[in-house]
Design a protein that fits this description.
92 residues, alpha+beta, 47% helix, 21% strand
């Protein structure tokens, strides 16, 4: 569950009740979106890779989540930008 901890910003120092809430959140997101944890991890990695091409980002503070209402699901991302890369962008 290491990647999910990083994905949701879960600290290993949280209490057991917080860990239970976080696990429930993961299960609910999976049920509502029908997206596997592997797909979520892949999506997160690809988003970070694309952004890192154009800017320096704080990898430790990235928060990506799926939010929903009755009719739709939204991808919500909080990705701190440290510096915008200027000039020629290196190819991947």
């Amino acid at each position: 569950m290491g990647f999910l901890s990083k994905f949701f910003g879960i600290s290993s120092e949280d209490g057991s009740s917080q860990k239970a809430k976080d696990r429930l959140k993961i299960v609910l997101i999976h049920d509502r979106t029908d997206i596997s944890p592997q797909l979520l991890e892949s999506l997160r990695n690809e988003i970070v890779d694309v952004l890192a091409k154009y800017m320096d980002i704080d990898m430790k503070k990235i928060e990506i989540d799926l939010d929903h209402d009755e009719n739709a699901v939204a991808l919500v991302a909080n990705i701190p930008i440290l510096h915008i890369k200027r000039g020629k962008v290196a190819e991947l």
